[in-house]
């Protein structure tokens, strides 16, 4: 009920994104408990220390948060990496990795264009 | 950051937040008054841990004065060179009487910079004769390099088998200086090397050297063991420094850290983080359950944080002059919303995590 009231208040503000919504992430289980719970169990497991350290995973998440341009994820993983002692320089380098893959992914499709041009032209 | 004037204490600036009642008012209003977040008392009631009661007394923590050579942004004591509250020899003598007869196994001297108390050395010499198992001095490291008269502190600590616990917010210069002031990192590194040189922090050494990490802003500390590994690797590789353990301590929302949280508009988010990370298992071992904190003027508190909020123990015995451990141990611990800082995640105390 509280969620609905807050949600209506927020809609009235005409904002698609509200930083306070991040705190409500856990509430997605309320409208689909089984799937929501499965998701959070999976999510929690993924970020546990494994073959990669929790810090390495947090840095990957930070880079992906940027390529996905997810404000909530950027908020969460900036805080998370700071908590794990990651420096600003390391954080920015991780984002450049994401940016490089994004731009590389665009450019590598240039080979498709080149193939097509070569096929079409005499 | 930095968002506040850091050269002077809140007291010197006559800031509202220098007053304990003003801080307590903030901690009990807003999100805690309108029911958005549960108060600490409501939270511990959920797990039948209210009222919070002491267990066996293990630690006597004595704050010998709020004077410090640094003005750190996050300081819960609001310490600095402009603070004049210093424990007198008369009060120290009362403390020595207590130390001789206490059942506590740990004596923990803190400040400010405890070394700046003019009677610090005399007090340490006398206190070390009491045979307390673990005798801690919380040294900010830079004091060792601040003035010639402090240069021999590593030898002095060694002579009295003092366990040195020192603040070191990060293994990089930038993060450390931002929190603690320009040049603090280089001085701290030099001081750590000097402590190492007399035997402190060596793997098999009985001369204990532990570091304290606390976050550089509005976020909680991460896994203590992981941070310790990172600190050890970086300090060894870059500076050849060794130490024993790292204590990860959560910043509590009081004094200058509260001022920072409010000024940077992080207060609500930070309180949410603390409440969301609440861990009932940490409540059972919070330091107020095994500690008595004594202020520079001899008043008794449940912890150093309650001391700064002027929340004296809820006991007939309130002052060192009338100290009685049995009477003191039969009391309810005073709590407010700042206590969430000690129960978040793996918990937090002056000895690091508790859960």
UniProtKB/TrEMBL annotation, chain A:
InterPro entries, per database record: AhpD-like (IPR029032), AhpD_core (IPR004675), AlkhydPrxdase/COmuclacdeCOase (IPR026445), CMD-like (IPR003779)
Name one molecular function that GO assigns to this entry: peroxiredoxin activity
Q: Where does the record place the Carboxymuconolactone decarboxylase-like domain?
A: 34-106
What domain of life is recorded for the organism? Bacteria
Q: Which Pfam families match?
A: CMD (PF02627)
UniProt lineage: Bacteria, Pseudomonadati, Bacteroidota, Flavobacteriia, Flavobacteriales
Protein's name in the database: Carboxymuconolactone decarboxylase
* Protein source organism: Leeuwenhoekiella blandensis (strain CECT 7118 / CCUG 51940 / KCTC 22103 / MED217)
**NCBIfam families named in the record:** ahpD_dom (TIGR00778), perox_w_seleSAM (TIGR04169)
TrEMBL record, chain B:
Q: Which cofactor does it need?
A: [4Fe-4S] cluster
Q: Which NCBIfam families match?
A: rSAM_SeCys
- Keywords on record: Iron, Iron-sulfur, Metal-binding, S-adenosyl-L-methionine
Q: What Pfam families does the database record attribute to this sequence? A: DUF3641, Radical_SAM
Example GO molecular function: iron-sulfur cluster binding
What this protein is called in its record is: Uncharacterized protein
The record ties this protein, via Gene3D superfamilies, to: Aldolase class I
